[in-house]
Recover the amino acids of this structure.
């Protein structure tokens, strides 16, 4: 028999003790395409057992009762076999597939012991995004199978300014978004200090309009709301300036890349060797690694991960500073996909509108706002244990967007005239 092929085609792999309690056969079985280790070494403590729940990945036998092993493994149901196999592959890929990962895992465990107040619990160590939850399996299975996402989206607009005029930017934004033939509904997340205005204050819409209380929490824009029935979410700030054609084009791009963030304003991170820390920049360059969620599409599944996978400490940081929620969402999506976001065409003539009377000054005008984002980058990277953001130079423009051809041939001709 070919030993490697035999391991590869096996459901269970026996792992008896070697010269000592441990054996190289343990990592060998983890590596071989989800072969479930059956441990036969009484008293052996598995690696990283203080954080890894090995009972969800291996079967422990008694080396004194070898004849019972066949009946033990035959009693394992198909669903548990699948769960065990998935868990072994997640653990192998996350912690054992290279010397670097083994060393980094060791250092992370030591750090958690020293700084116990910010340590990750066992759920975080054993449930990486997409690892073993039914919602994760369904989501990623559909993407891998090439199943096209739905043909409509839900717009979620974060409103922080009081409604004092019908000429405010949010009013124009509502008209622009509601005109999209792909828009299913609009949800206004009311995060203003002022009470919600009555329904009569909002303009009539061709699509359902819902105003919900955001409780003045920055992270509320990423809550997994029951009202969101579509797979696609269009996240918007109240002062976002877009055309309906821009919204339509970005949505069609997202349908081709439903696992990514697809949007307009790009930002980037970099390593500062002098400060020995990560930096954040808003300068327009060829490279980008972040697409701000003030105007971006993403899958609603990431609302679930944002609320249930990320630790409360990071969400509390975002709410306390009213900042960095967009960076944190980009960290999360890149950690799941190992891919960068996607930037789509944006009008060069974009200008920031003057502030609304009674509204707070724009946050990016405050130097402290930028300093907070620098700190967030490093705080998030510290929790993830590495820098998940990925740089990209990939941009998508509509066909014939800037070409000198007949206007009749241009599907998104309004974008060029703006």
């Amino acid at each position: 028999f070919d030993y490697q092929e035999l391991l590869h085609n096996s459901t269970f792999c026996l792992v008896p003790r070697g010269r000592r309690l441990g054996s190289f056969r343990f990592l060998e079985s983890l590596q071989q395409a989800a072969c479930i280790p059956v441990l036969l070494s009484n008293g052996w403590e598995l690696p990283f057992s203080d954080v890894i729940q090995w009972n969800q990945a291996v079967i422990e036998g008694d080396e004194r009762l070898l004849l019972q092993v066949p009946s033990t493994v035959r009693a394992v149901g198909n669903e548990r076999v699948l769960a065990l196999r998935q868990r072994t592959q997640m653990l192998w890929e996350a912690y054992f597939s290279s010397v670097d990962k083994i060393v980094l895992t060791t250092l992370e465990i030591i750090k958690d012991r020293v700084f116990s107040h910010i340590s990750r619990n066992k759920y975080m160590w054993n449930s990486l995004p997409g690892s073993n939850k039914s919602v994760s399996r369904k989501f990623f299975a559909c993407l891998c199978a090439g199943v096209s996402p739905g043909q409509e989206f839900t717009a979620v607009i974060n409103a922080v300014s009081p409604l004092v005029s019908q000429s405010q930017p949010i009013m124009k934004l509502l008209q622009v978004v509601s005109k999209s033939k792909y828009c299913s509904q609009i949800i206004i997340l009311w995060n203003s200090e002022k009470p919600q205005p009555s329904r009569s204050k909002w303009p009539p819409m061709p699509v359902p309009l819902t105003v919900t209380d955001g409780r003045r929490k920055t992270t509320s824009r990423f809550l997994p709301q029951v009202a969101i029935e579509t797979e696609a979410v269009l996240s918007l700030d109240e002062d976002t300036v877009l055309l309906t054609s821009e919204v339509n084009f970005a949505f069609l791009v997202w349908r081709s890349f439903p696992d990514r963030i697809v949007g307009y304003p790009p930002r980037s991170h970099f390593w500062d060797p002098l400060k020995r820390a990560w930096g954040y920049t808003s300068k327009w360059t060829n490279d980008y690694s972040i697409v701000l969620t003030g105007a971006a599409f993403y899958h609603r599944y990431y609302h679930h991960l944002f609320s249930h996978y990320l630790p409360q400490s990071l969400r509390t940081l975002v709410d306390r500073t009213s900042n960095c929620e967009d960076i944190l969402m980009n960290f999360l999506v890149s950690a799941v996909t190992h891919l960068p976001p996607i930037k789509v065409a944006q009008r060069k003539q974009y200008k920031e509108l003057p502030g609304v009377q009674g509204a707070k000054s724009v946050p990016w005008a405050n130097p402290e706002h930028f300093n907070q984002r620098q700190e967030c980058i490093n705080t998030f990277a510290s929790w993830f244990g590495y820098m998940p953001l990925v740089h990209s130079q990939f941009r998508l423009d509509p066909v014939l967007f800037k070409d000198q051809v007949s206007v009749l041939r241009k599907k998104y001709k309004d974008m060029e005239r703006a």
Notes: The chain is about 35% helix and 15% strand. The longest helix spans residues 78-96. Residues 130-137, 349-360 have pLDDT under 50 and may be disordered. The longest strand covers residues 183-190.
